[in-house]
Amino acid sequence: MSKVNIEMSKEQYETLVKMVFLGTWMVNSTKLELDEAFEDVRELVLSKYKAAGLEDKVVYEEQMGVYDLDINFETSLLDSYVDEYDEFSFWDKLIEKLAEKELTALYGPLEENLTEEQLEKRLELEEKIGRKLEETGITQLSFDE
Description:
With 145 residues, the chain is mostly helical. It has helices spanning 10-28, 36-46, 71-107, 116-136; strands at 58-61, 66-69. A two-stranded antiparallel ribbon has the order 1-2. Strand 1 (58-61) and strand 2 form a beta hairpin. Helix 3 (71-107) crosses helix 4 (116-136).
């Protein structure tokens, strides 16, 4: 197996640590079993923390034999990136699902590939729903019985 060596500054390495943590978190946060390929790369990257002088951000957990982020650093990443992503994706997904519901009411069960007319209607509905949610939040959503 060939090896790749990368030289980087301390700042670049810290950015790589953040990227590896966030990527691994995204891949594994919803799984019962960890994706070992991601975990292996995470361990490799985090194992170089002393050479980069990041002892305040990465720790070695001797009991488990793994490298991990300092809890305060991890929390700051979750607060900074994951919360913002979750907030954005929630509204985006909500708009998408509500538009899909409206499309199904108009056209019946949808095929995998929408027609040109359905695509145009979907965009129109997403824009309308997005504006409405922006104005009122979720307070005006209703589910008629």
